[in-house]
Every structure is written in structure tokens, then in C-alpha cells.
Design goal:
By secondary structure, this protein is mainly α. About 75% of the residues lie in helices and about 0% in strands. A two-stranded antiparallel ribbon has the order 1-2. It starts with a strand and ends in a 19-residue tail after the last helix.
């Protein structure tokens, strides 16, 4: 291993002081991650404009978002190794350069293939940013302040997706789809300059060679799973099931071979994704909890806007505004929740959070065509608050339970689980939703949509209820008297 500049890491484990130089590094990464995630959520609303402007089919246009998601699923598992192989500056500049290059290509895209390629390049950079940010926070921030800083990370993760559709809607109405990329590019270029000028390296690097076979297996495994899951919803529309089945089989086989390969390589510390992180009970429990919550949450927030538009007959803009307060609350509460985590631990947050999220999903199971819009708005906001109470302590406690050399692998796993669980949640709930709506027979569309919504969110409610048990099991590592958490890798 070769050491690099590690920043001003406090020697006192319980010190809450973060040197200004280290905070500057974190703010640069927060800004870059915000821009990358903001861009991730902007193109969904642009699909009708792309169909008209580029003369493509709706299925082809959907690949603008699907290809982005697939690239994220393939690249994120590799970031654990990459963040240990290359320095912070190298990874940051590579991520932002890829993102900026993809954005520039998108601005001047002369056809759909060029736009699709641009989105894939963008996604390659975006996939690196969140693991890089979380790994850097864990390396620079002392245990007593990690919750507070991770709360700011949750602001990025929540506010960017909330603002993205609203911003893109405005730009689409007034300037067209290219304006989305025009607005984002200067911010990314400024972030590159700031990072190049002032960003310092954090942690240590290693000289292990990159295992190409692991990258290939990861691509087939995670890419196959996410693609297969994303196609499940199309079955009810008479789509050919063969590509879906093939993708899922390739995904499962690829993932099994990938896991086997990592077990072999980690004996020499050469794994692309070191699985010894799962030897930490706290990390494993937190990841299981996060998977279930994400499964329930992403599926539900996909179905609810459809209910608002097709059952309550609201326009798309109004339906989007209904879910905005929840997303904003989720982000703005992040720092407060982080401070509570620092001072009181996990259970005071996780237990009420899981109960609140579960209760709101059960409330959604009673929705019908006569439901009040205000009821949906309040329930959606409370659901988001419940999830905010859960996510910040979950990924903070999970990473804190690992040795520092495993932080990058833990961050990669968190990102991967979010991608896979999100795709799975959307697939499962949209399949249930569509099946019930299509079986409505002579029922009017609003009533059939309401029935489909109730069935879909019931699945989410059952899943969320299980997380109440998990909330009692997950603890902040320091609460267990483990000031130097090092469960993984023994």
C-alpha cells in the first residue's frame, strides 16, 4: 500500500471538530454529487419531447433513463475497488470529467444514438460520486460528527431528486430538452476547477491489479438483474417474456459467479468488491433494512403519482407538486436527524421512522376515487419523514461498523443496494398495479386505478412492517463500546 495525504484526521476518537480544510473537501464533493444526482432525475419528464423532436418511439425514448440506470448498476459495484486503487483527486476528476463530457455530448446530440451514448457517459461519472462522497466523509469525519455530516449527504440524496423534475419541467416548457444539459454543464465545470485547484487526497491507495473478469461478471450480474426487473411491468401489456427471463437468468448466474470470484480474490486483498464487510452484523442488518425500505419506498412513489393523475384526475404538474413537500422535508431534516444520531444513537430514530413509514403505507391501502388530495399530500410527507428518520442512521451506522480500509466497499454496496432495490420495488409494485387495473373489466378507469394502487401499496406496507423488527436490532457501533469499529475483515 502507498500512503497519500490523509487530511487532518483528529486523533481523539470522540472529537467532534472537523478542520476547515477537510470540510472544504466535503463541500466540494457535496456540490458535485448534487449536480450529478440532479441530472439523474431530469430526463423522465423530457421523454415526450424527445419522441417528438428526435422522431423515435416511446420504447426507444425510455432507454434514455433505462440506460442511465443500467450503467449506474454496472459501475457502482466497481467503485469500492477503484476508490482504493486511485486517489481522491483522480477519482473526483475522472467522475466529473466523464459527467461533463457526457453532458456536452448531450447538448450537441444530432440524433438519438448520440444522446443515448451521452447519457451512458454521464452515468459512468455519476456512479462514482456518491460512493466517493460517503467514503471521504467516513475517512475525514470523527465518529462524534458523522451523523451530522451524513445528514448533509441525505440532503443531496433527497433534494436533488425533488428539484430535478420541477427544474426540467420549467426548462422543457420554455427552452427545450437541450437546456437541461446547458444549465448543468457550467456547474460541473466549476466543480472540476475547484476540485483540481483545492481538493486533497484522503486515505490510502493500493497497487493491486484490476480483475477484468470481476468487472465482466459484475456487468452481467447487476446489469442483468436491474434490466430484467425493469422489464417486468411490460408483461401485462403483452410484451414477449423471453428477454426478461434471459436477463434475469444471466443476472442471477453472473451475480453468483461474481460473488464466488470475490471470495477467491479477497484472500489476497485483490477483490473488486470485498465481501468481508458482511462479517459485520451491524452492516449486514443495516443493508437488509435499507433494501426493504427502498423496495417499499421506490415502488410506492412510482404508483402514487399514477393514482393522482388517473384516479383523482389531476394534471401531471399538480401531481408532481403533491410529492414535492415530502421530498423537501426528507432532505431538510437530514442534518437535524444526523445530530440526533450523533448524540442519541440509532433506535430513537429507526423505531419511530419505520413505524411512521409503515403506518403511512397502510393508510395508502384505503385510497379510492373519493380520497382527499390533502390526505395524500400529508401521508406522502409523513412517509418521507419516516424514511428520513431511517436512511441517515442506517448508512452512517453501517459504514461506522467497518474498518477504514473497507469504507469504500461499504459505500459501493450501499449504492448497489439502492439501485437493485429501487428497480425491484418498481417492478413488483407496477406489476401488481397493472395486473389489477387490466383485470378491472367494465370498471371505470379511475376506480380500476384506485384498486390497482391499493393492491400495490399493500405489498409495500407488508414489506415496511417487517422493518419495524429490524429497527430494534441495529445499533450505532460506538454504543456497543467499539470505539474503533473493525468487525469486518477479522
Amino acid at each position: 500500500m502507498s500512503a497519500v495525504h490523509t487530511g487532518s484526521i483528529p486523533t481523539a476518537a470522540n472529537s467532534a471538530t472537523i478542520p476547515r480544510k477537510d470540510m472544504a473537501v466535503i463541500w466540494v464533493l457535496l456540490t458535485a454529487a448534487f449536480v450529478a444526482i440532479l441530472n439523474e432525475t431530469t430526463m423522465g419528464m423530457a421523454i415526450p419531447h424527445l419522441i417528438a423532436d428526435l422522431h423515435i418511439t416511446p420504447i426507444a425514448a425510455q432507454w434514455v433513463t433505462s440506460a442511465f440506470m443500467l450503467t449506474m448498476a454496472v459501475v457502482i459495484p466497481t467503485t469500492g475497488f477503484l476508490l482504493r486503487r486511485f486517489t481522491t483527486r483522480q477519482m473526483f476528476l475522472a467522475a466529473l470529467t466523464l459527467f461533463s463530457a457526457g453532458t456536452l455530448l448531450a447538448i450537441f446530440a444530432i440524433g438519438f444514438p448520440m444522446l443515448l451514448g451521452a447519457r451512458i457517459v454521464q452515468a459512468s461519472g455519476t456512479a462514482i460520486m456518491m460512493p466517493l462522497l460517503m467514503t471521504t466523509v467516513m475517512n475525514l469525519v470523527p465518529p462524534a460528527s458523522r451523523g451530522r455530516i451524513m445528514g448533509r449527504v441525505s440532503v443531496v440524496m433527497s433534494l436533488a431528486p425533488a428539484i430535478g423534475p420541477t427544474m426540467s419541467g420549467f426548462l422543457l416548457d420554455h427552452f427545450g430538452w437541450r437546456a437541461i444539459f446547458v444549465v448543468v454543464l457550467p456547474i460541473a465545470l466549476v466543480a472540476i476547477f475547484i476540485g483540481w485547484r483545492w481538493l486533497t487526497n484522503v486515505g490510502e491507495t493500493m497497487n493491486a491489479p484490476i480483475d477484468v473478469l470481476s468487472i465482466v461478471l459484475s456487468a452481467f450480474g447487476f446489469g442483468g438483474l436491474v434490466y430484467g426487473l425493469s422489464q417486468i411491468g411490460g408483461l401485462s401489456n403483452g410484451a414477449n417474456p423471453a428477454p426478461l427471463v434471459i436477463a434475469l437468468v444471466v443476472g442471477v448466474v453472473g451475480l453468483a459467479l461474481f460473488l464466488w470470484r470475490q471470495i477467491v480474490l479477497q484472500k489476497k486483498d485483490d477483490a473488486l468488491l470485498d465481501l468481508r464487510i458482511f462479517l459485520s452484523k451491524d452492516f449486514s442488518l443495516a443493508m437488509a433494512q435499507m433494501f426493504l425500505l427502498s423496495l417499499a419506498f421506490f415502488g410506492s412513489i412510482t404508483v402514487i403519482p399514477l393514482f393522482l393523475q388517473d384516479a383523482l384526475e389531476m394534471d401531471a404538474t399538480s401531481a408532481g407538486l403533491i410529492v414535492l413537500p415530502g421530498a423537501l422535508a426528507m432532505g431538510l431534516l437530514g442534518p437535524v436527524i444526523g445530530r440526533i444520531y450523533d448524540s442519541r444513537g440509532t433506535r430513537i430514530l429507526l423505531i419511530p421512522g419505520s413505524i411512521l413509514a409503515s403506518a403511512m403505507l397502510w393508510l395508502f391501502t384505503a385510497l379510492d376515487t373519493g380520497s382527499s388530495v390533502w390526505l395524500v399530500l400529508i401521508a406522502q410527507t409523513l412517509l418521507s419523514i419516516g424514511l428520513a428518520l431511517s436512511f441517515t442512521p442506517l448508512f452512517t451506522a453501517a459504514l461506522a461498523s467497518l474498518k477504514p480500509k473497507f469504507y469504500s466497499y461499504g459505500s459501493a454496496v450501499i449504492g448497489t443496494i439502492q439501485q437493485v432495490s429501487g428497480a425491484a420495488g418498481i417492478a413488483v409494485m407496477m406489476t401488481v398495479f397493472t395486473a389489477i387495473v387490466d383485470s378491472g373489466g367494465g370498471t371505470e378507469v379511475p376506480a380500476a386505478v384506485a384498486a390497482g394502487t391499493r393492491a400495490a401499496v399493500t405489498v409495500g406496507a407488508v414489506i415496511a412492517t417487517v422493518t419495524i423488527v429490524g429497527a430494534f436490532l441495529i445499533r450505532k457501533p460506538e454504543d456497543e463500546g467499539d470505539e474503533a469499529p473493525a468487525h469486518a475483515g477479522h
